[in-house]
Structure formats: structure tokens, C-alpha cells
């Protein structure tokens, strides 16, 4: 079982930046470095959607709404994945979840990001 702990959320004004971190621990089959990781978010009253994903080779994909503003990265030595969020907009408000993508998906508890206009 993989445990994921997110941090770095908070309240920020539009145009500001935040950096989310997700520390993994526990039974990561094959090692953290061989796993895909992702960030999802759930805006208030809406469904949870993908924001960004990074595979074991470091290849990244992004939702169209965050391209050019968000950057996902990973530090395999620290078993940590990051989400750098710049030029934040009120529509970026929501709970952000870290995801380990293996034979089953493991989710963190989420961290709240609130962007004020």
C-alpha cells in the first residue's frame, strides 16, 4: 500500500504562485522511480479531473487549462513529486490530490488551494 502526503496548499491572490509537494512512502512495487505520478483537482461542486501527469521517463502531460502555467516534476531520490503553479486563477481553486499510478491507483488526502480574485 502506497501512502501519499500532500502539502503546500493555501490561499493566494490571482496571479500568484504555489508549489505543491507529495511525499510517497510504503510499498511502491518496482520503486518510486518506475511509477507514473499525477495531480488531480476537484473544484467545489464539480468532478475530480486530471491536472498533470509525469511518467517514469520524466515525460509530462497537462490539462489544456493549465498548460504554460503549471509544471509537474519529480525527485526520485526523495520519492517526491511536485506541482509548481504560476499565474494562478480563481478557476484553479479546489482540492488537489496526488496520485500514484500502479496496478491500482493510490490517492493522497488532498490539499486545498484557494485563489482569490
Can you put this structure into words, describing what you see?
- The chain is mainly beta.
- The termini are far apart.
- The model has no long low-confidence stretch (mean pLDDT 94).
- The chain has strands at 2-7, 10-13, 18-26, 36-42, 49-54, 60-62, 70-75, 80-85, 94-101, 105-107, 111-116.
- Strands 2, 4, 5, 6, 9, 10 and 11 form a 7-stranded mixed beta sheet that branches.
Strand portion: over 45%
- Following the backbone from N to C, one meets helices and strands in this order, namely EEEEEEEEEEE
Task: Bin the helical content.
Answer: under 10%
Return residue spans where pLDDT drops below 50 for at least 5 consecutive residues: none
Short description:
This protein is mainly β.
Entry keywords:
single chain; about 120 residues; mainly beta; four-stranded antiparallel β-sheet; globular
Write the layout of secondary structure elements.
Elements: E1 2-7, E2 10-13, E3 18-26, E4 36-42, E5 49-54, E6 60-62, E7 70-75, E8 80-85, E9 94-101, E10 105-107, E11 111-116
Amino acid at each position: 500500500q502506497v501512502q501519499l502526503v500532500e502539502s503546500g496548499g493555501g490561499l493566494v491572490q490571482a496571479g500568484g504562485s504555489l508549489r505543491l509537494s507529495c511525499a510517497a512512502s510504503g510499498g511502491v512495487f518496482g520503486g518510486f522511480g518506475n511509477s507514473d505520478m499525477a495531480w488531480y483537482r476537484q473544484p467545489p461542486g464539480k468532478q475530480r479531473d486530471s491536472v498533470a501527469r509525469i511518467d517514469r521517463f520524466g515525460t509530462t502531460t497537462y490539462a489544456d487549462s493549465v498548460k504554460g502555467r503549471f509544471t509537474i516534476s519529480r525527485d526520485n531520490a526523495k520519492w517526491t513529486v511536485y506541482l509548481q503553479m504560476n499565474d494562478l486563477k480563481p478557476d484553479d481553486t479546489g482540492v488537489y490530490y496526488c496520485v500514484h499510478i500502479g496496478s491500482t491507483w493510490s490517492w493522497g488526502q488532498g490539499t486545498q488551494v484557494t485563489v482569490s480574485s
